[in-house]
Amino acid sequence: MITCDILVIGSGIAGLSTALAAYEKGFDVVVITKGESPEESNTDNAQGGIVYKGEEDSPELLIKDILEAGAGATNPEAARVVAEEGPRLVEEILIKKVKVPFNKRESGEFDLTEEGAHSVRRILHADDLTGRAIERSMLRYIQNHTSIRIYTSRVAIDLLTLQHHCKNPTNVYKPLECLGAYAYNVKEKKVERFVAKATVLATGGLGQIFLHTTNPKGATGDGFAMAYRAGVRLINMEYVQFHPTTLYHKDAKRFLISESVRGEGAILKTPDGDPFMERYHPLGSLAPRDVVSRAIHEEMTEKGYKYVLLDLASYMDAEAIKKRFPHIYETCLKHGIDITKEPIPVVPAVHFACGGVKTNMWGETEMKRLFAVGEVACTGLHGANRLASTSLLEGLVFGNRAARRIEEKWNELNTEIPEPAEWVDTGEYDPDPALINQDWITLKHIMWNYVGLVRTEKRLKRAIYDLRHLWWEVEEFYRKAKLTKELIELRNGILTGLVIARAAYRNRESRGCHYRKDSQKS
Ligand code: SIN
Fold first, then answer.
1. Residue 455 annotated among the catalytic residues of the structure
2. How far apart, in Å, do the first and last CA atoms of the chain sit?
3. Which residue, by CA, sits nearest to atom 2 of ligand 1?
4. Structural fold of domain 433-506
5. What is the pLDDT of residues 465-479, one digit of tens each?
6. Which residue out of 259, 290, 293, 346 has the highest number of ligand 1 atoms within 8 Å of its CB and is therefore the one to mutate?
7. How far apart are CA 462 and CA 456, in angstroms?
8. CATH number of 245-350
9. Nearest CA, atom 5, ligand 1
């Protein structure tokens, strides 16, 4: 059993932000991550940037942009917290403390970029690999300046709770309480107990449960499923955001073409050269993501295109393209597309979960001792559709706030907690990888075809029916087979898919990235 004051599950920006702030307040912090190395995270893949502050900018203007993108479902308090605290924390933590190499102009000023639905240029970037620069700078700082214990190759299985994992049967009458987590040690093939006075879920997103996604392979919805099984409320799960522009190429696995490409002037066109976004929104190619994704989908389905084109070459000088977007340039070139000379074929793909574990403005969930931060959490900041480049900021701000709240409440949290039961291994046989692969394929297709960009009652009903069946099969399988990382992820992915499908079925109103073809638009 590994004990600590604070257990952080996940090592992206939200988890590291919590861990660093908590360590600096004197807590004994443990971070677990299922990656073989700690940088494996959604954060590491983020291209575009992180909101800072532009000229003629103000918290009010940022709040207005967040609310407009959120399509009427944003929690204004969350927008205010992020707009008021975000730029200060970017400066204190990312710029001054961990020294992220954000791009600067020759004048020495930060090179602020633009993305869809922002009123001003206010986004910091590190070439077109901003997340990677942030993730690695934070990790380097933590490894060099702290004694935070980071355990890699640990797949969290379930939250340990007073109600589920302690012997006393009268615990069920007490409020829900979290005591840590069981985690599968991939290398040693055994389950470990991580026990803590406060547990912080920072497990990131769920894109991998859909057929096409910008997310890395670890984004299998683990935190959503663990919270759900423990009895914690998830909200806004129907709001799954699609990114409008990912590379259409058979070998490219939906490689992200950052929104900042449009921010720097690129225009979406049909293969016939029609700049179609002008017909859909006054902001054209820089309209909010939900609008752009649906417009692309409509053009593709109505006219039978397999993709649309993103034309940067006509609007930016070749040398400037190579300097500003080196990673996108190189990756497209590897696939035979020279973005300095020709337009990029693009299609939308799943990108971000706007909903998640319900939290207050301090990352507190409805379960005692359990916090959630970053993509797995839902403060309501993103409403029904997220504004570009706010996800890294959200992770930074709410990660920091969760640590502050744990410190404030430490007298209450620092009490004796009972020892949770040891893991009981019921595995009888090694799971057949062919079965797991096929179940993943089934899940991804159900989610893509029935719970995707365009939803109807019939499709959602069918999805729920099929997912329930799959869930039952895999729960049975899970109980009898020996644990593997892939099996744990599959179990989580199916449950998370089911939660999304049910939320989408219940909500008949089209709003933001939840589009019900069979109901009235709000
Ligand atoms: C992008 O670079 O387009 C992704 C940034 C984001 O999701 O905010």
1. no
2. 51
3. 48
4. Methane Monooxygenase Hydroxylase; Chain G, domain 1 (1.20.58)
5. 999 999 999 999 999
6. 259
7. 10
8. 3.90.700.10
9. 48
